[in-house]
Write a structure and sequence with these properties.
Elements: H1 2-21, E1 37-40, H2 56-63, E2 69-75, E3 78-85, E4 88-99, H3 104-111, E5 117-118, E6 125-131, E7 140-146, E8 151-158, H4 165-188
Antiparallel strand pairs: 1-2, 2-3, 3-4, 4-8, 5-6, 6-7, 7-8
C-alpha cells in the first residue's frame, strides 16, 4: 500500500511539475516532458489528457473567465491540463488526474496539504487550499479530492499578480462546485 501511495504522491508531484511547465514563464532549467498539445480553439477537449474533462464553455459558466488555450501533458499515471488566455501565463486553470489505490484515510494523512480544509460531499475525501501569491503570480485556490473510482484529482486556479488573496478565498467554493461536476463526469465514464 505504501508503495502505491508513494507512486500516487510522486504522480501528484510530477503533475505539479507538468502544470508549472505549461505556462509561458521563461526558465533556465530543462522544460521537462513535452506538452502533448497546445491548442487555441473553442473546445479544450481536443488537447487530450485531462483537458478531455474540461470545456471552455463549462469553465466559463462556473468561473466567468474566458480561456482560449489548452495544453495537456502525461507522465506515467498522471494526466494534466492547463487552460490559459492566449500567451498570458496567468490566470490559469489546471487539472491533474492520477490513478491511485489510496483510501480516504491515506488521502487525508498523506496527500492533503498542511493547512488545507476538508471539503464535504466531494468524492471519498477532499480538501480546499487557498495560497498566497508569489513574485510571479497572484494567489491560488486548489481543490483536491479522491474520486470513488480510484483517482486523485487536483483543480487549481491561479490568479495574475494584481489580485489579492481574498479573490482566491471567494473563488474556492465555486471551484468546489466545479470539482463536484467534474467528479460526476469522471465517475460516469
Amino acid at each position: 500500500m505504501r508503495d502505491r501511495l508513494t507512486a500516487a504522491t510522486l504522480g501528484i508531484i510530477l503533475a505539479g511539475s507538468l502544470l508549472t511547465g505549461c505556462n509561458n514563464a521563461e526558465t533556465e532549467t530543462d522544460a521537462g516532458p513535452p506538452v502533448r498539445a497546445r491548442v487555441e480553439d473553442t473546445q479544450a477537449e481536443i488537447a487530450g489528457g485531462a483537458c478531455e474533462l474540461l470545456n471552455f464553455g463549462v469553465v466559463h459558466d462556473f468561473l466567468d473567465v474566458e480561456f482560449n488555450v489548452a495544453a495537456a501533458g502525461e507522465q506515467k499515471e498522471t494526466i494534466t491540463c492547463v487552460l490559459q488566455q492566449g500567451d498570458a501565463p496567468w490566470p490559469d486553470l489546471s487539472l491533474a488526474v492520477s490513478e491511485t489505490s489510496a483510501d480516504a484515510e491515506v488521502f487525508g494523512s498523506d496527500v492533503k496539504p498542511e493547512g488545507a480544509e476538508a471539503v464535504k460531499d466531494l468524492g471519498k475525501a477532499a480538501y480546499k487550499l487557498v495560497s498566497d501569491g508569489t513574485k510571479d503570480h497572484g494567489p491560488s485556490a486548489e481543490i483536491g479530492w479522491l474520486s470513488s473510482n480510484g483517482r486523485i484529482l487536483m483543480l487549481r486556479y491561479t490568479f495574475a499578480k494584481d489580485q489579492q488573496k481574498a479573490a482566491a478565498t471567494d473563488l474556492a467554493p465555486v471551484l468546489v462546485d466545479m470539482a463536484k461536476d467534474l467528479d460526476a463526469t469522471l465517475v460516469a465514464t
